[in-house]
Design a protein that fits this description.
heterotrimer; A alpha+beta; B alpha+beta; C mainly beta; A: alpha+beta; FAD/NAD(P)-binding domain; seven-stranded mixed β-sheet; 25 helices; elongated; B: alpha+beta; Gyrase A, domain 2; Alpha-Beta Plaits; five-stranded antiparallel β-sheet; 5 helices; 23% helix; oxidoreductase (chain A); GcvT_C (chain A)
Amino acid sequence: MTKDAFRGATGGRIDRSRPVTFTFNGRTYRGYQGDTLASALLANGVHLVGRSFKYHRPRGILSAGSEESNALIQLERGNRTEPNLRATQIEIHEGLAASSQNAWPSVETDVGSINNVLSKVFVAGFYYKTFMHPQSFWMKVYEPVIRRAAGLGKAPAEPDPDFYDKMHVHSDVLIVGSGPAGLMAALAAARTGARVILADEQNEFGGSLLGTREMIDGRPAADWVAAAVEELRAFPEVRLLPRTTVTGYYDHNYLILAERRTDHLPRGSAPKISRQRLWKVRAKQVVLATGSHERPLVFADNDRPGIMLAGAVRTYVNRFAALPGRRAVVLTNNDSAYAAALDMNDAGIEIAAIVDLRGHAGGPLAAEAKRRGFRVLTNTAITATHGSKRVTGVDVMMMNGPGEDVIGAPTRIDCDLVAMSGGWNPAVHLFSQSTGKLRYDDELSCFVPGVSVQAERSAGSCKGTFDLPACLAEGAATGAQAALAAGHGDGVAPAVPAATSVAPQPLRPLWIVPTTTPVGHGKAKHFVDFQNDVSAADVLLASREGYQSVEHLKRYTTTGMGTDQGKTSNVNALAILAKSLASPIPQVGTTTFRPPYTPTTYGVLAGRDVGELADAARVTPMHSWHVAHGAAFEDVGQWKRPWYFPKGDAQGTEDMHAAVRRECRAVRNGVGVLDASTLGKIDIQGPDAAQLLNRVYTNAFLKLDIGKCRYGVMCKEDGMVMDDGVTTRLGPNHFLMTTTTGNAAKVLEWLEDYIQTEWPDLRVFLTSVTEHWATASIAGPKAREVVAELAPDLDLSPEAFPYMSYREAVVAGVPARIFRISFTGELSYEINVPAQHGLHLWENIMRAGEKHGITPYGTETMHVLRAEKGYIIVGQETDATVTPQDLGMGWVVSKQKADFIGKRSYTRKDTARSDRKQLVGLLTDDPNEVLPEGTQLTAIADGHAPVPMLGHVTSSYFSDTLGRSIALALVSDGFNRMGQTIFAPLGGGKTVSCAVTKPVFYDPEGVRLHG
Amino acid sequence: MADTLLRRGGAERFTQAVAALSPAAGPRLAELTPPGQINLRGRPSDPKFVRTVGGVLGCVLPLSANTVTSAADVTVLWLGPDEWLLVTPPGVETALVARLREALGDLHAAVTDVTGNRTRLRLSGPNARETLMKGCALDLHPASFKPGQCAQTLLARSGIILHQIDDTPTYDVYPRRSFSEYTWMWLSDAMAEYQR
Amino acid sequence: MLLINCPWCGPRDETEFGYGGEAHRTRPADPSGTSDIEWAEFLFMRTNPKGAHRERWVHSHGCRRWFNVERHTVTNQITRVYPMGGQVGGTEIATPAAEQAIEAKEPKQGSRS
């Protein structure tokens, strides 16, 4: 174990009594509870943590927060491995195992760094330019090689052992960020009694105050933070969510928050707690206090390990007592780096020089720096950096007036740390996601929130307010206003604690720091996007090549397209573009900010919707019987329906074909039973019930007798078939409609649409009873004998209980409704009992049917039997472009009715065409050939592509009854093709010829049905 | 007849292990014997309808959205501006349907026995609210959703009727019967975090 | 995720609702009396505005009522919710609580217009 030699002896928010051992790239290090991986590595003197995406250049830690673009980490191994995590956000814990990405064989000796030597090839757009030809190489050669060489982390190959969940919550005020503005806003809102959520992505509240040494109310800011959090904790209506990233801001103040609940603990140590939780928050008001991100400066070779953001260095020395170096050069265009330099100096870091791009360094911070004797070089640039895996020194030169060139000879300054500051970008990501309009502030040289669209307000540095007293005051006012807008308090800001104001001097927006050669010439690179290796030269090249829209620039150069989404790079890139176009920055604009704010695991987005909870499986009241009897199940919508019931014996278990043939034979020759409970059922009551049916079905319903059933087809206004089913008249003003399984809810909603909006005069009520009734369909020549045993009091003679009629009776001791309707072409009874007795009914049917050899059958057998009869299935024979006439069902369309839904469309030119695709039967010349459903059909056996298509096969089975294959198909002008031969090209040179027939293959007279 | 038969619940394949879901701490979950359920439709603007129904039930028909009234043998849940669910002890529903139909006579109304449509799961105890919040987007905060209120809404991937019974809090969750197993699985998974 | 204020049940998440397309299209009283062009206009043509759009929604997982919503198609802001049969520019229901003002309110039925 190496000693953490770069750790200050005292200070910081780490717990020195709790040392933590972890590994990085296989080596063991020591840190403390409270460290991030980044702070612990820096305290151990480790700066080289990764290789860049394209050139494989050595890279170190840039930042101290979620904006990190360089220090991407692969965490853990095996099924818990996770790529692309930011070392600056990972809280270390005992046993943590981390490694670098994108380096092979190791981050120290990376073979891929040859790309750096070849970098002239890898300019902007090089993928597009280089890998164009030959086209066939793309999939086989280029893409796999590029992916391997340019990959980020590795996704796990095994299932995730952890679980994730979600929580819906409503709040009056959601506050994002817990820095000075956010905390003050939370206090102001909480004191009104409002329901407040305070979320912060860090492990503790305080935001920027954790990394500075400000004083608030005369005591260290951290003490004020602790007191504020303690006060907030006491409010019952306040929910505090640390380690929670507000990752998406959607319509109507709906935000999603990703909370990391156990990532800071050893893996697997809290098995009952979800690893991460997605909070879905509906907030009346939102306060954005998301802080700001420091901008890097774009200077020659600004990417070496040891070159860091000044504010980050300040955070490391103050919050973690970690020393990122011994001797630092500070490069800045603004005042904030002076504050960093002072804190660094206090922590024991020698300040070799402050290199200020501005012509004059004024103000109290610069005065203090000078008082301490720091070497302050104004109007000066860093023109080169030295070192490879760690910066060892810089060259500095004076600049000319406009800052476009350098003068004189370079001076070398040795150092092991460069702290840079190019100013600050307000973190406007969530504001922008909320569809608020940004405004460019010329004085601050950054984008700030402009016009709000949703119920949100920004406070603090995310609004461009960088001064601490102003942040506190703005937070207090905003919190009080938000609470008032949500109906709490009086809107008056509470008293604000005292803090020292530092009137900042203006910054100098110098977007490219000049060096001895023009940008893009010579070896040096001015990096803009570290993660994607996009340099200023790439941006300028793209601009010259015509990629002058910021959105085009982004996609062509890939700037801002990394896992950091350009948090540190975007403004520099578009400012350089603006400069090259000689346009003002607001005119160039920004790219669109989209969720998520930081990378989010798929796990937390999926939540518990995985495995058996991935979707709701609907089961019938008889489901347990089907399971116990070995049914294979088919998914029909969300329903689990028995598909077939394979029989097993010593020889093995039947396959589907054997089972279906057996089940078909049973129904045609004996008796079978189907669980038909899933059919949609709508109870229709009211004096105008018959009128409604008459308007929505294509055929007539006004004169249906009580106790009779009628098949009906429903179409939409365009005349296309929507659903079908049997409707029964239970009483003068009472009907029961059945719908297809899949359309039950849709049909009810559609009917409600008409009676609530078009025909409010109709006195009719609709009630779904789909789930109230369990339905068993007993079918086959012996069906009557089985039903007779179950319902001894019921007269089942064909005269007393004919086909398409309905009776009520006690069946197996339960009051039941019995419908003599058939979807198989056989004598058939559909018995309905209340669902709580469905299993009882089924068990009794099986018992009563035993001596008749009753055979349970599934949906596959049902499909074969109905296809033999030419009965359509909506959604299989139809697809919203098929009329009843196309199905050969003109008989179901009334000629007498003045109006019904769909009628008008049958006289439209296209609908009235005689050569539309029409439903026909197909018999293959080879009786054993079963065509795949969906097979396209042609008029000629062979021909050169493209061969015109006549239509397609909609249903296709092997019919045990007929001893041959049968198929239904929609074929152009099909009714006129009866007896003709058409062709089914199956690919691979195989073409099947088949005869066009009528679509009824079995018992066309319906003798069996009426028996 | 039917009332002497066992009334099957909707989650019986899972409720065998019901003891495991009555832990020392955290919420408890059980499937209650499916109650009688009657769907009632009618026009609330018709005083005769409202009066007649109230007379038969022995309690006023709830006319405020998402509220519940009750009498000795019936609980009345508001489902929509002209729709209610009457929940009765098991077996009472058949006679009540008949009494309502008779009393309503020619009034434009609809009385439908829907006893099989839904099952009833009871979730009660500490963190019952948080358990529901994992899958229900309603504002269940005590200031917004109280005992005596009901709602038709979504729980995870299934529609439910939710009825808060008391401040424990206790909730009755009515899934469609076919969704009973899913809802049971989902609830028992969501509450595991709070169990000891 | 829109928050839609059901005129009966109060504000609920968009996932509880179904979308019914443009509002205030009335089915011709006598479809057989329409020309092909008029019928096609009714069947297929919609205004698709950029801005305020009046559209129909149904509270599928709640009270099963159809109602009208005026929504801005760019910002998604909902400016008005009103029952079927309500006039264009009718009762504005900005933020009613679930319990508020709905008491004994009858579904005001009327045509899509």
